[in-house]
Amino acid sequence: MKLGVAILIEEAALRTRVERALAGRLETRPGGLEVVLTDAAGLREAPRPGPGRELVLLCEQDGRRAALELLARSRVHHLVPIDDGLEAWLAILMRRLARPALCTGLGAQLGAAEVTQRQLGSADDKGRALEELGALASQVLRHAMLADLLVAAVDEMCINALYRAGSGVGAPTRLEWALDDDWLGVAVRDGAGALGAGDIFMGLALALAHEQGGLPPGARSAALGFRIMLGGLSALSIDVDRGRATEVVGALSRRCTLGEHRRRAPAFSLLSR
Q1: CB neighbour class for 139 (10 Å; exposed up to 12, middle 13-18, buried from 19)
Q2: Coil, helix or strand at residue 124
Q3: Collapsing DSSP states into helix, strand and coil, what is residue 125?
Q4: Is 238 exposed, middle or buried (0-12, 13-18, 19+ CB in 10 A)?
Q5: Could you report the per-residue pLDDT of 150-192, keeping only the tens digit for each?
């Protein structure tokens, strides 16, 4: 897929940095897909997403919660943190937007040669797989709490696939994980393709509200799933091949300390076709 790229960023130094990162791609305009990159200052004036257009919001490093609040308010499908990995995040996102297929698996997204796979048909399967993944995470991440955050995030990914995404226990649900020098990557795929953008953003907004005001009387749940995923991972990407499959891919940095992780905004991307 050809990409057309428009950069609508008010801050000059940031605009220059983004232009340099995408220098080889800017000449493809006009393309089959228009990608509009903006910062928070230009968000109101930026063209809204629609057929053939994707909006990317670059997010300042004001803390993880602030980034999640911005994501819940703006409901943008692509959030890129402005940090020392900005150029790498942009390259990953542009490759993601340009690829013709969804749900390509963890190996393709992380570039990992060796991927561990576990089929999940029950809560017992999930428990055994998470115990195995947790043991690995505790060995390769820089703090025990980071391993706990990862396992909690993956648990929510699995619960969503098994019980909340219309697939039901017994449907084909797969958990994968892989490792390289920089990342521990995880992916969960269901066979339903029923996850909607509203489920993600409404759940995130409710969870953030409940954190501050408590759970209101009569509420059926705290809606914590996507809050836990985005709180525990460095990056979260979601592919929805409607009616066929949903693949949720997460990555946690092996180089970040616990404090750095908590201060950094997560990268986020949602594609639905």
Answers
A1: exposed
A2: helix
A3: helix
A4: buried
A5: 999 999 999 989 886 554 444 579 999 999 999 999 999 999 8
